[in-house]
Each structure stands twice: as structure tokens, then as C-alpha cells.
Design a protein that fits this description.
Elements lengths: L14 H20 L3 E2 L5 E3 L1 H4 L4 H5 L3 E4 L5 E4 L4 H10 L8 E10 L11 E10 L4 H17 L7 E7 H10 L6 H12 L4 H10 L4 H12 L8 H12 L6 E3 L13 E7 L8 E5 L3 H4 L7 E7 H10 L13 E3 L7 H13 L4 E3 L6 H11 L3 E4 L2 H6 L1 E6 L4 E6 H12 L6
Parallel strand pairs: 1-5, 7-8, 12-13, 12-14
Antiparallel strand pairs: 2-4, 3-4, 5-6, 6-11, 7-9, 9-10, 10-11, 14-15, 15-16
The chain binds one RNA strand of 76 nucleotides through β6, β11, α12 and α14.
Amino acid sequence: MKITSSVKGTRDYYPAEMGLRNWLYGKIRSVSRKFGYQEFDGPFLENLELYAAKSGEELVKKQAFVFPDKSGDPITLRPELTPSLARMVAQRIHQLSFPVRWWSFGPFWRYETPQKGRTREFFQWNIDLLGMENPQADAELAAVACEFFRDVALTAREVKLQVNNRRLMDSALEAIGIRGEAVGGTFRLIDKKEKMKQPEWEAHARETGLTVDQVKGLMKILNDLELWKQSRELVEFFDAVQAFGVSEYVEYNPAVIRGLDYYTGTVFEGRDADGEFRALLGGGRYDNLVADVGGGKIPGVGFAMGDVVIGLILKKNGKEPMLRIAPADVLVTTFSAQEATASMEISQSLRAAGIAAEWYPAPDRLPKQLKYADALGIRLAVILGPDEIRQGKATLKDLIRREQATIERADLLKEISKRLVGSPCE
RNA sequence: GUGGCUGUAGCUCAAUUGGCAGAGCGCUGGACUGUGGAUCCAGCUGUUGCGGGUUCAAUCCCCGUCAGCCACCCCA
């Protein structure tokens, strides 16, 4: 019988991967709560209409998984969370206490060609602050991202948060005569700047309809690392970032634009310092989105971080956690069929005391059982043979320290608890 | 969606101009019948991604297809 293959662009979560995913979730949860954010989630299925005018055109028309339901209505597997968030806020706008601070971690789907750092099914951390439009709120989200970097031990040398502002770019472009419909094309041009060689990029810029002077002007904008000082929003933003104590991670980058149409002000991206991977997180200010889904005018700012790229960056920098495969701290071995019952009873008495204990369910050779404990990273083994049973004792073996002692059974619990303090794994 | 590279044991990879499909790691057993990681010995593991074609003969050449990766596009 042939094994049915998995769906393209999906991943299987074996216990090791599941452990990593849960570890990541734990870090995300901890940072989010530290800043006072509440966990929520939206449905995984949404009506296509929700995304129609608000997300990028590409995201909806080409990248969304859309299926007709039995009545023929187009149902979408959510490609992002922000429109759902905007709807949920719009629906309860009179009951919520603002500022609303919400976060979420869940699956999303995009129909794209899978590559490194990009899958069709992925998990994403979303965190948003709604109801405030001051730059200090933007800075808080930047601080959340940087605090997360710190919590997973990524340094400011390894990752950066690069910031820009749409309004600043709009006015800078307007100053060189680019306005209206030409702005979108120019934004895409800016996105390409880092990927293309200089003459190539200039030629491409001319093809999109820019004059020689405009290309020069655009170059000047992109090379001016002091440009942010002309933006009151960004000046206040950077002051607040300093107050939050995360300046080391945050820098101005005029080439950061973001593709999504709903961003209106500050935008930012998390990147690894070498620029080896695609953006590990992206977000910004969206002041019209709630109104666009039929709610009142509620400004918002937030970001999303996918699990795939952060996983690659953690791995590259040696910051993946040491995770144990087995949840049990103790393996109670089974010496022979005669001692099996006593072993089971001991394992249960450990559980009753709150210790995760695994009972080896067959009288296999002792070396095999100990190898099993070793392979799963179970630190302690209890050995209960005829000698121990006769004397009312038990042997406790510490697989890490390579030592063992035969002790009174009454002392077993105490000894185990003592040895489990300060375990090296998470 | 377009173009390119790759696909061999559970994992990492070999295999001469087309000529019997191999190694390391891992796994199983033993050396060691009540003690794991080291060492040594032995053993197991294959529809060479899948389907077709050319050939006396295909892992190798050709076509198709699927998957991974790279670029474009876009983005977490």
C-alpha cells in the first residue's frame, strides 16, 4: 500500500517539531502578556469578501485558498489575520475598552510556490494595538518585537527592526513630482532596489516612467539615512523606542515599504543582519482598516511574525532550544514479569506525587530499557529487581551523572525530587 | 503562475564512456545472562520519487509527472 503524500507546502509536526512550535508559542505568549496583551483568535475560514478591497491585490487574487461551499459562496482559508481582527473590533466597537491590545498565534494559508522560509501552511504570531494613533503606540509594538528577540536570545547584531513611514515617503516622493497612481509603482521599485545592480535598477526605473531627475531624486531619498528627522512621527517614534530600552535593535531604513495596501503610517520589518532570509516579521500602522470593514474610525498598529523564518534564524545563530523528546523525568524499568506489578505501582506513586513517570511496558533486557531512556533523554531510571524487592528498596540511576544508589523505597520520592532540580533542558 | 537545479537505505551521501546498487551514521543482536552513551564483531534495511520511452542492458540518456530548492512575482 502506497503512502499518500502530504499536501504540497505543508509540514508534518513530529514530536520534535511540535516541541519547537510549542516552545515558540510559549515565548510569544510570555512576551505578549508581559506588555498586557490579551489572547484571541478569529475563524480559520472567512468570506472572500472580507479581504477583497483591503489586503494587497496579489494576496487575495493569487495567493488565497478559495473554495466554493455547498451553496457556491466563495470561502477563504485565512491568508492573514488583520482583516478578521478589524471585523471583530468593528462588531464590538461599543463594548470594548480602548486601547485594545490583542495577540494571536495560529495557522494561515497562502497558495504560493514553496521555498526556503515560505510554505503554504504556516503559523503566525499577530499582535495589535487599536484605538491609539500616536507614534508611541507604534513604538510599543516595536518594543514588543525587540523584547521577543531578547527572550529568544537573538542579539542586536543578529537581527534588526528596520523602520520607515508611508506618509514620509509619500511627501518625499511628491517633492520630486511622483504622486497619485505613480506612487504604488515607485514603492515596488524601491522594494527591488536591494535586489538589483545599480545600472540595472536605474534602467528599470526609467522603464516605469520616471524621468532622469526623478531617478536621481529617488536615489537621494534612499541614501539619506537622516530623512526620518523630517518626520515628526518618526522623531517621536524613535524617542519612545529609546524610552522602551530597545534602541539597539531599531534603525531607520528608507527602503522598507511593505506590500500591503492598508498601511498608512509607520511600517517596519524584522530582518536578520546578513539579509540572508526574507523578512521574519512585518507590520505597521493601519488607520483606516476598521472603517473599511464597516466599523468606526479606529486606528491600529500591529505586526505579524511567521514561524518559518524565525525558525531558520534561530537555527542559523545556534539559538534553538534544547528540547527533550520525552515529557517523563523518570523511567521505571521492568525487571521481569514477576516484578512488573511492583514497577507499575511505583510509577503510579510517582505520578501521584506530581512527577512525570513512564513505565517500561515489557520485561526487556535492562540494557535495552536504559538505552531507551537515554535515547528519549529521560534523566532518571528506577530499577526494581528481586534483590531490591526483598529488602524493600529501589535502585535509582541518574543517567546524566552516571551514578546510582540503592535506597529505601520511602526515600525514593525525596531523592528523585532532589535530582530533578536544575534540569538543563526546557 | 513562469524559468532553472536536484531527487539513490530511516538520515547524510557514493556508484568510471550506460554493465551485478555501496559506505558512514542509525537500528537489531552479540562480546557483557542485574545496568545506557565508548570500543569491537555480526546482521537488517532499496519499486534508485513516480509513470512511460530508447537499449542486449538505465541510478545514468529522452519525455511526462510529483516533491524540495533557486530566481521572478509576492510576502510571515
